[in-house]
Specification:
globular, seven-stranded mixed sheet, 38% strand, 206 residues, 14 strands, Rossmann fold, alpha/beta
Length: 206
């Protein structure tokens, strides 16, 4: 294994070609030239978690992450929320295998990973969470699943009273509109190429 440069691409029935690159000790995983794991994304989520803790200082013990992204952000989540347990939903088994091979979560444990489509899995979950991270992509585009009212309602139902929802909309700002009616507080911002939204304090929906 070369610490300076290593490339090991693979094929996925779900995502097509997955590019796996290691350069100067950092791993880069991408699909259709869209990053799934990289130092850029680590910095993006680190900033998002800082904003979350400032806007909503409630204790985060249970986290649901939609989209594994080869496991690059598992360590970032545990570092920011050391008391938390993490559940991940991922529809591509190749991404799960990749996360298990790269071990980017170390020294933290590999979380509970549920293989399946978030649209079908989330409504069946019995647990509620302090934080839900929506980071779903279809190839090079952010998934429009969050625009479906039934799915947005499922996300809302899975959040605790003081919980928060973090959404990576990438370049589609319209994907940050559907959560607005469900939360008392919202914050939107741009991190270089990505537009993100933070929504907290779920409203009581009748």
């Amino acid at each position: 294994m070369n610490w300076f440069f290593e490339e090991n691409n693979r094929r996925s029935k779900k995502n097509g070609k997955i590019r796996v690159l290691r350069q100067l000790g950092d791993w880069y995983v991408s699909v259709d030239n869209i990053g799934q794991t990289s130092p850029y994304l680590r910095a993006m989520w680190s900033e998002a978690f800082k904003k979350l803790k400032k806007l909503n200082p409630a204790r985060v013990q249970k986290v649901l992450m939609l989209g594994l992204g080869a496991g690059g952000e598992i360590k970032t989540i545990y570092k920011n929320f050391p008391e938390s347990s993490l559940t991940v939903v991922e529809y591509d088994p190749e991404m799960i295998r990749l996360a298990e091979e790269l071990n980017l979560h170390r020294p933290y444990p590999l979380p509970s990973i549920i293989l399946g489509d978030a649209a079908q899995i989330v409504p069946t979950l019995e647990e509620t969470f302090d934080l839900i991270i929506y980071d779903l992509f279809l190839g090079a585009a952010a998934s429009p699943l969050i625009t479906e009212k039934s799915f947005m309602k499922s996300l809302h139902e899975r959040l605790n009273l003081n919980g928060s929802l973090l959404v990576n909309a990438y370049k589609n700002v319209a994907y940050l509109d559907p959560p607005v009616p469900y939360f008392e507080h919202e914050k939107k911002w741009v991190f270089r190429q990505n537009t993100l939204g933070l929504f907290s304090k779920p409203k009581k929906i009748i």
